[in-house]
Write a structure and sequence with these properties.
The chain is mostly helical. 3% of the residues are buried. 64% of the residues lie in helices and 0% in strands. The chain is globular and about 40 Å long.
């Protein structure tokens, strides 16, 4: 969700209605657990990229060697 939203921001395009609706639901769920939605503005893209890279590296570590 965050990657898609940040892509539209970077392209300076309006996100589709379904994506906006999903974002609203996600923001509401995060607010209930005192968490914040990541910054999807141009200024926040670097932090999103870094977080995704960490997550992907973690997931890659779970793969069996050679895959």
């Amino acid at each position: 969700m965050v990657l898609a939203r940040s892509w539209y921001t970077r392209q300076r395009q309006t996100a589709p209605g379904r994506l906006k609706k999903l974002e609203g639901r996600l923001r509401a769920a995060l607010a209930l657990s005192d968490q914040r939605f990541p910054d999807v503005t141009l200024a926040g893209l670097s932090a999103i990229r870094q977080r995704c890279q960490r997550e992907w590296q973690t997931m890659a570590s779970w793969l069996p060697v050679g895959q």
